[in-house]
Amino acid sequence: MDIPYTVEARPDTGVNNAKLGIWLFLASEIMLFGGLFSAYIFLRIGAPEWPGMMAGHMYGRASEVLSVPLATLNTFILIGSSVTIVMAWASLMMNRFDKYRLFMGATILLAFGFLIIKGIEYTSKFSHGLFPSESNFLGIYFVLTGLHAVHVIGGIIINSYFLGPGTKLWKTNPKYFTNRIEVAGLYWHFVDIVWIFLFPTIYLL
Amino acid sequence: MAELHSPEEIRKHVRVYMMVFGSLAVLTIVTVSVGYLKLPIVPAMIVALFIACVKGGLVGSYFMHLITEKKLIFWLLIASAVFLFIMLTLFIWAHNSQEGGYLVS
Amino acid sequence: MTYGTEREMTDSVSGGDESVHDVHRYHEEPFWRKYIFATDHKMIGIQYALTALFFLLTGFTFMMLMRWQLAYPGQPIPLIGWLFSDDTMPGGVMVPEFYNQLGAMHGTIMVFLGVVPLAVGAFGNYIVPLQIGAPDMAFPKLNMASYWVYFCGGVVMLASFFVPAGAAKAGWTSYPPLANIETMGQTMWLIGMMFLITSSLLGAVNFLTTIIQLRAPGMSYFRMPFFVWAQFVTAFLLLLAFPPLEAAAFLQLADRLIGTSFFMPSGLVVSGQVLDIAGGGSPLLWQHLFWFLAHPEVYVLILPAMGIVAEIIANNTRKPLWGYKLMVYSLLFLGAMSFIVWAHHMFITGMGTTMGAFFQVTTMIISIPSVIILSGLFLSLWGASMRFTTPMLFALAFLPMFGIGGLTGLPLGLAPTDIPLHDTMYVIGHFHYIVAPGTILALFAGIYYWYPKVTGRKLNDFWGRIHFWGTFICMNGIFMPMFIQGLAGVSRRLYDGGATYDFAANVVQYNELMSIFAWVLALAQIPFFINFFLSIKKGKEVDDNPWKATTLEWTATPTPPLPHVNFETVPTVYRGPYEYSVPDSDSDFTPQNQP
Ligand code: HEM
Ligand SMILES: [Cu+2]
Asked: Which end of chain C has fewer CB within 10 Å, C or N?
């Protein structure tokens, strides 16, 4: 007796195990980032000014401290990677494994691009003496974007697995493999959505 | 859901994905330009969050296939959205009702 | 409807051979796969059970040490005092810092490493798949990961005693600013908590997927045993309430390690010095995030216990549960409500009156479903000719104990009465009545009830009864005086138990009595442990369904169950979970899988 519904959907729920599992996980992730967002709002409405005093300067707007152009570029990169991963899945659905490899590879490269730009942002903050301990604004900025970056790294690991050793499954059970890519994609889109909210709330407001 | 799609349908999907990508790009530009208007905080917040919700909704609906997803997943998402909403509003309320901004800042 | 159709066909064609083959294959698993990095939910359940029992004993030991200090403040601990280092017990006398470490770690270990892993990790893991007719949990490898992540969390927590200045000292609630300026043990506590939270989250995903996806054909939601429902709601609470605490732990870790001030107000003075920090944070933010989890967490502690008690009561009264559906709806309502009552732990933080009123009302509302469930269990006893088996004794004792715990919660849920009672021994009495004589008795009931399932042998009834009476009496002896002390105004977390406070003069003498009860409670556990380990080999052998139960774990699989596959053929369910004493039936129980 094997575990049922690993590949096929269960008729009465309409989903397979992995699909339900990833959505449950994402629901808990919503609460994780939601908790941090709530903390951010709690601190912000209690602050006399925001972003406030940092490294001896007074700032009235987040965009004066953080680099909006770099973050905008990063937004495009993440949205692009969302498209490439959904295209990777669509390629599998059309039985085009070669195109899958192309799109998945692109997704991973874009994710690296995102991290590099993030790294440039961080180092330029540090070089101006803007450390997380300077103010709660910077603290929130580093913790939220840092946790998001950890999720990006997690996504890179998962996606690389499915580009490398994980592809064996495609030869034995293509449908199972396609499902897994869909699930990996759901996670990756979620990471994208988190950024879509982080970007305006941290950089622009 | 995988088994329901024929390659033609998938091709149709791909066109939709491209359209969504275009809309997301446009909305990002709108967000940034509104940011440069330097509106007062409340309208700025409403606009920014509204656009973010639309963008998140697009990604969720099309890339994550929520528009064709099963009821079960919806219930789950509704539950977490409700609890998130409760947390946010009660935190804000708690903060504002704290006597004399007790211990804050 | 469910996973029956196609699978049943293959099973009936090649069924027998295949499963024999499977059994054979799994017997050949190497040692480390079978016992260490196991993926079989039953083995993982056993791993959880043993580890959790170890931690329960550890937490209990901490408490016994503390009780010496409370009973005889400043006197050296006899016999074992010399075992401890000079930092903790110079000359056998406990220093205040060590008292605080023991207190904080007692709470943490009992809640997060003892009760929850035993109730959810062990009982949930072992029983839920069997009761719903599933071959395993939905994600066996994830299940293994949950256990090992939990294990690592436990190691980190224990290791924290050996870092400079010892383990965390800021209580299991870890309130800043105190926790933020604590020594390194607090950092270890936070890291340990992150492991435990991650483990619980993985487990919750697994339980929910299993219960939703792997129910056997015919096992509709309203045919699930109440225990499965309890685990279902519990998993939901863990899934959605734990992440905010994980977020809070990140923030506190950032405060401690990279110098942010999320929880630190400006101008904080520590040891006469203004701290050199940016400030602008809020200690109340931690309290909100912490209690957003920790109130649902108290239901995580109690719901599985209610599930166990429901199973045992139905089985030993030989009657259906009273109001099964009503109880299930109450459970769901209670789960949802538990997210909006948390600030009743914060009435004295100066919250506005409207806000206070909101949380008082929600707290009163949430006690309604708890009362419905308890009443349902009580009413199930009505008119029954009960079998007073050992598990039944524990289950029966649970009812009034939970009743006392719940009723004493009501004055705490109303601000006017909570303000004088907050942070007194009364609160300690309240929640211990629920968790110790309540949940722990229910967990013992579960051990006595399902032990035959796991080992094929029964625990000895005579020693079981000694264990029961000893435990029941001692627990009341420990916790009942706490209400009196609390009403007299004695604070919790006092190093000397109130000996130096004038107003406590009339009630401090109870401390000695309570401590003696605590040590006798330890003696009462000796028969249990001997019974537990000896009966594995020496206990009375039982047949497949020794309790004459209706649910699948007893009726559709041999005792002990098959490794990995659980069932030789996929069981089909034809009826509800508690068809006991059905009129016109030849036997007094009708198994769920009987057509
Ligand atoms: C049935 C209705 C219940 C009500 C109205 C209730 C109410 C309360 C209130 C208001 C407090 C805060 C007291 C204070 O700190 O001043 C409290 C504390 C506590 N309750 Fe309950 N409670 C109930 C059930 C439970 C249950 C089922 C549990 C499960 C184990 C539980 C566990 C706890 C714990 C652990 C604390 C103390 C936390 C701490 O401060 O360390 N309660 N309860
Ligand atoms: Cu509570």
From this structure: C
Greatest CA separation found in chain A? 67
Ligand 1 centroid distance, CA of A130 (Å): 43
Residue A3 in any domain: the answer is: no
Residue matched to tokens 């920014």: B48
Distance (Å, rounded) from C-alpha C526 to C-alpha C196? 29
CB of residue C408 inside a 6 A radius of ligand 1: no
Taking the CA atoms of residue C362, residue C364, residue C366 and residue C370 in that order, the dihedral angle to the nearest 10 degrees is: 170
Structure confidence by residue, pLDDT tens digits, A104-117: 999 999 999 999 99
What CATH number is attached to the domain comprising A166?
A: 1.20.120.80
Domain annotation covers residue A119: yes
- Whole-structure pTM value: 0.93
In this complex, the residue of B72, B97, B102 whose CB is nearest that of residue C354 is B97
Q: Atom 34, ligand 1: which residue's CA is nearest?
A: C431
d(CA C4, CA C215): 10
Q: How far is CA B80 from CA B65, C143, C207, C243, in A?
A: 18, 23, 17, 11
Q: Is the pLDDT of residue C12 over 50?
A: no
* Nearest-CA distance B8 → chain A (Å): 9
pLDDT digits (tens, 9 = 90+) for C56-111: 999 999 999 999 999 999 999 988 888 888 888 998 999 999 999 999 999 999 99
Q: Is residue A97 assigned to a domain?
A: yes
* Predicted ipTM beyond 0.90: yes
Domains by residue range for chain C, with CATH: 3-14+43-262+279-555 (1.20.210.10)
SS (H, E, C) C564-586: CCECCCCCCCCCCCCCECCCCCC
- What is the C122 CA–ligand 2 centroid distance (Å)? 25
Decide if C284 and B99 are in contact by the 8 Å CB cutoff: no
Per the domain annotation, does A60 fall within a domain? no
List of long-range contacts for C170-175, beta carbons under 8 Å, 24+ apart: C170/C100, C170/C104, C171/C100, C171/C103, C171/C104, C171/C107, C171/C493, C172/C104, C172/C106, C172/C107, C172/C108, C172/C111, C173/C107, C173/C290, C173/C294, C174/C104, C174/C252, C174/C286, C174/C290, C175/C283, C175/C286, C175/C287, C175/C290
Euclidean distance between CA atoms C122 and C304, whole angstroms:
11
Scan for tokens 């490398």, then name that residue.
A164
Distances in Å between the alpha carbon of C1 and those of A54, A198, C213, C217, C573?
Answer: 62, 43, 12, 7, 12
How far is residue C471's CA from residue C444's CA, in Å, rounded to a whole number?
10
Mark yes or no for CB contact B95/A42 under 8 Å.
yes
**B24 within 8 A of B58, measured Cβ to Cβ:** yes
SS3 of C390-416: the string is HHHHHHHHHHHHHHHHHHHHHHHHCHH
SS3 content of chain B, % helix, strand, coil (to 5): 85, 0, 15
Residue in A14, A27, A93 closest to B10 by CB: A93
What do you get for the CA distance between the two ends of chain C, in Å? 17
Q: Are A132 and C260 in contact (CB under 8 A)?
A: yes
Ligand nearest to the CA of C340: 2
If you ran DSSP here, which 8-state letter would residue B62 be given? I
Total tally of structural domains belonging to chain A: 1
Quick check: C397 and C470 in contact, CB under 8 A? no
